[in-house]
Amino acid sequence: MTLICKKFDIEDDKVCDDVIKEYKDEFIGVALRLVLSPEEVCGILLGNNCGTPYDPNDLWNVTLPSTPKPPLTPRVLPKVNIFDVVYFTGDIPPHNVWNQSKGDQISALQQFTDLSLKYLPKKPIYCTLGNHESAPVNSFPPPYINDKDSISWLYEAVADSWKNWLPQETMPTIKSGGFYTVKLGDKFRLISLNMNYCNNMNWWLLINTTDPTGQLQWLVDTLQQSEDSKEKVHIIGHIHPGGGSCLKAWSWNYYRIVNRYESTIAGQYFGHSHTDWYEVFYDDVTFKRPTSVLYIPGSVTTFTSLNPGFRIYENDGMYQNSSWAMNRSNKPVWQKEYSAKETYGLKTLFPEDWSELIYRMKANDTLFQTFHRHYYKMATPPSCTGKCKTDLLCDLKSGRSHDPALCVDIQS
Predict the structure, then answer these.
(1) Where is the Saposin B-type domain (predicted)?
(2) Per the CB 3.0–4.6 Å rule, which of 19, 146, 297, 307 could disulfide with 377?
């Protein structure tokens, strides 16, 4: 494999040597446990590019409770003008994935913790795990891998870091699966998901993709308890479920869950892409009525060819949403990049407003190009017309992966 990497000039010699060294043990560990055919492996890793190979582990569903779905309730709460919490959606280490160790990742986690406590000493910071937190990257073995390949080394370190902001009762699910739930206030709850168990580059899932750690069933149970208690819920995660990086069965189950609990879920906040955009969810009967919006606000990192940025949300009142960016070529001064309501002419930030914006951008290229500049956080964007524009608008409509039907009206 090292010879192939070098011969075909996939990377320079040092990267080839280090990547093979980093992944060799995991590759062998997965291969020894694998029961799938080459066609089935291709289907999981590359999706529709391999046709439609059958995977017996990919046909699974979570169980929704028999409790009737309540009527949709208004998404308006009293206005509060204070900065309450920080959501961090993962990926602390740099992306030099060929030159990382478990010790490096723990050191980066500790540095993040120390800096957060120093500069935001009075603010709770709620985190989720990115795919770069582990070593090798994307390697998140399920709990039944409990030998030398176990992921417990990372979850123990994460629990030790996150205990600065979380109560003790969150520790069991963090240590077993890297996810948790916590109350943020009266009738207000946060759920942090470990999206690495939907990651198609997590090779351990080739052994069995069926709801690793039971996290999605736990999500259903937690949301049902919140519905019964009349709580509103925010969900944070790293890999957005609509992208091709999220396995189909996991993504489609998550979509069902969001639609079932649309009256309870008040916001979804994810990361991974480094760019600034969103995904709209639609009812899974007609796919016409918007039910939820998932925000992907961009990254602090400049990787690749981006300006750093962060997002401020006001979740009460009229739901303000503004992004701030810093030009990586100038002095480190943060400037307000845009307000979503003002820039895009949104009456509110409800799902129907974000869905309508997609169709307005399809018809109005000037509006789309404004969105495209913000997509890159005001860095110089590449040209985006024709298929590029259609594909990006399609991404905005795709709250679940591997479903071309969601984009038919955009492509027409």
Answers:
(1) 1-54
(2) 307
Name the strands in the sheet holding 276-282, side by side, starting at the edge strand that comes first in the sequence.
180-185, 188-192, 232-236, 265-269, 290-297, 276-282
Which tokens hold the place of 305? Answer: 């060819």
Higher pLDDT, 236 or 43: 236
Q: Average pLDDT of 215-231? A: 98
Nearest to 177 by CA among 91, 123, 237: 237
Averaged over 204-213, what is the pLDDT? 94
Per residue, the 3-state secondary structure of 35-69, as one string, reads CCCHHHHHHHHHHHHHCCCCCHHHCCCCCCCCCCC
Band of residue 57 on the pLDDT scale cut at 50, 70, 90: low
DSSP-derived 3-state class of residue 126:
strand
Asked if 178 and 158 count as a contact pair (C-beta separation under 8 A), the reply is yes
Q: What are the residue boundaries of the structural domains of the chain, listed by start?
A: 2-411
Alpha helices per DSSP H over 120-209 = 152-162, 171-177
**Tell me: the pLDDT tens digits for 157-177?**
999 999 999 999 999 999 999
CB 322 within 8 A of CB 308: no
Q: Which CATH number fits domain 2-411: 3.30.2450, 3.60.21, 3.40.50, 3.30.1340?
A: 3.60.21
Give the integer Cα–Cα distance in Å for 10 and 15: 9
